[in-house]
Design a protein that fits this description.
Number of helices: 5
Order of helices and strands: EEHHEHEEHEHEEEE
Mean pLDDT: 88
Distance between the termini: 16 Å
Length: 249
């Protein structure tokens, strides 16, 4: 049987997306258009349609429950410009990176500024990998206000990577153009691993034993179908190795 479907697997630590879409080639113009209508949402699911979806997969690729959620609050209630916010974040991250480097430890983190839509003080949310000496290290690098440090809560129940990513994307930076994401990350983060193979038309997506199904989408027309699963693997963890994209035929 001809291999007329593309099966895409996107793996980011304990989070995985599985996508099945028709290959758009040959046939009538009507058939190609109908297959493309099914393929496009699948490709969007692979790449992330929204800022929070891209962040969700990056968070899953880099952090798990062994890592940390940090909030740094600026004591001065005066308004901070974008330039000032950028400088404060860079200064803190550079200081923490230097301290860890002196101990031969790595720093990976994602961060975002927010101020409760203008109603509160500016504070910096940071997700970062843990080393075990974090409390004292952070205290020595941040002297501009209070800070809160707690274990990162991510599971397949109420606290998911999606919930965390949506929370970090809930405020639009007033100094950024609409549509641009407001979060940032260090250059050494890991990225999701993408694997693509061609399969036969009777192939279907299945949730492996031990996985938690977070989302299911199935669409079809007379020229084909699209299937999508988002899965959480409770016993998996973020990989300590840099990830590369893989494509197989």
């Amino acid at each position: 049987m001809a291999k007329t479907y593309r099966q895409i697997t996107v793996t980011a630590g304990a989070l995985q997306k599985r996508i099945l879409i028709p290959v758009v080639r040959g046939g009538t113009k009507e058939a190609r258009a109908a297959k493309k209508k099914l393929s496009d949402p699948g490709l969007q699911a692979r790449n992330g349609r929204h800022s929070w979806e891209k962040l969700e997969m990056q968070l899953a690729a880099n952090y798990d429950t062994r890592d940390l959620w940090l909030t740094l609050t600026v004591a001065d209630e005066a308004a901070l410009t974008k330039k000032q916010r950028t400088a404060l974040a860079k200064k803190f991250i550079a200081a923490l990176r230097a301290l860890r480097r002196s101990k031969k430890q790595e720093l990976r983190c994602h961060w975002v500024w927010e101020n409760d839509l203008g109603r509160g003080r500016w504070h910096l949310h940071i997700v970062l990998n843990s080393t075990g000496d974090d409390l004292d290290d952070i205290r020595s690098c941040w002297a501009l206000g209070e800070f809160e440090l707690e274990p990162l809560r991510v599971d397949g129940g109420d606290w998911t990577y999606e919930r965390l990513a949506r929370y970090m994307c809930k405020e639009r930076d007033p100094d950024k153009k609409p549509g641009l994401h407001t979060w940032h990350h260090t250059r050494n983060i890991h990225y999701p691993e993408i694997e693509e193979i061609l399969v036969e038309a009777d192939e279907t997506l299945q949730a492996p034993r031990g996985s938690v199904v977070l989302e299911t989408v199935r669409k079809s027309n007379r020229f084909g179908r699209m299937e999508y699963l988002k899965l959480f693997f409770p016993h998996a963890s973020a990989s300590p190795r840099p990830r590369r994209k893989k494509r197989r035929r």
